[in-house]
Amino acid sequence: MKKKISIINPNTTISMTKVIDTTARKYADINTEILTTQPQTGPESIEGYYDEAFCIPGLIEEINNNIDADAYIIACFDDTGLDAIRSITDKPVIGIGEAAYHVASLVSGNFSVITTLTRSINPLKHNLKKYGLFEKCVSVTAIEVPVLDLEEISDDNLEKLNKSIEKTKFDDNSEAIILGCAGMANLAKKLEINHGLPVIEGVSSAVVLAEALINLQIKTSKIGSYALPRDKNYIGYLNKFRPKS
């Protein structure tokens, strides 16, 4: 069965989009077409609530530019704009954060999340509570490395990541590690081998889950939470995002 998955990196950094694309293609089925893009406008990285707010319009534009996809993946670990996108399509929409949490919950009794900056910790905890998986998470920590510094990660920053994994293994008895940024996607397998426990990243998790939903022919519910937006006026420069029934 031929499938097309549209993956949107919500930030505007092309080099990060390429890392996401490489990871996605590595795990996608041979019959799956992967199209990975990023918005033309918005922040170069997403680090906190303010950046999240300004990447959503560009994210919606990318969804509208790829209406022929069978499923969509939002490739920001904060699951930026996920609920909004699920409200404008009946096709499956998966956030890489939510995907990683669910995969980890299937292979371990608990897990830890290691992200980039401290400002991301509370947003991730909020998402875990929303998804009903907070009790399975024994810690959410940050290595204090900006997102764009992960593109060509230095030895010092890689050492921070390794030390953080070892610390949560022994202090929190973590059974699995989730890497809390799309920029870490290419590090997972090597870290898994080095530390002897599952190390899960969201891009590959989202790809295989999206493929499964396409195969199952399951759509996003349009009853209640993700009902299509009501037709109404949007004033000013946001008029182009006006919902139309």
Summarize the structure.
The chain is α/β, with parallel strands linked by helices and 245 residues long. The chain is 40% helix and 15% strand. Helix 1 (14-27) links the parallel strand 1 (3-8) and strand 2 (32-37).
Question: Could you please describe the fold and organization of this structure?
Answer:
This protein is an alpha/beta fold and 245 residues long. The chain is built from eight helices and eight strands, in the order βαβαβαβαβαβαβαβα. Helix 3 links the parallel strand 3 (71-74) and strand 4. Helix 1 packs across helix 8 (202-216) and helix 4 (96-107) crosses helix 8 (202-216). The radius of gyration is 18 Å and the shape is globular.
What topology emerges from the helices and strands here?
Elements: E1 3-8, H1 14-27, E2 32-37, H2 49-65, E3 71-74, H3 82-86, E4 93-95, H4 96-107, E5 111-115, H5 121-131, E6 137-142, H6 155-171, E7 177-179, H7 188-195, E8 199-201, H8 202-216
Parallel strand pairs: 1-2, 1-3, 3-4, 5-6, 5-7, 7-8
Helix pairs in contact: 1-8, 4-8
Please, what is the average pLDDT? 94
Biggest sheet, spatial arrangement of strands: 2-1-3-4
State the end-to-end CA separation: 31 Å
β-strand number: 8
CATH first level of the largest domain: Alpha Beta
Instruction: Return the CATH architecture of the largest domain.
Output: 3-Layer(aba) Sandwich
The total of helices stands at 8
Query: What's the CATH topology name of the largest domain?
Result: Rossmann fold
Query: How much helix is in the residues?
Result: 40-55%
Strand content: 5-15%
Question: Unreliable segments (pLDDT under 50, ≥5 consecutive)?
Answer: none
Main beta sheet, described? 4 strands, parallel
How many separate structural domains?
2
Overall 3D shape: globular
H/E order of the elements?
Answer: EHEHEHEHEHEHEHEH
Radius of gyration based on Cα positions: 18 Å
What is the structural class? alpha/beta
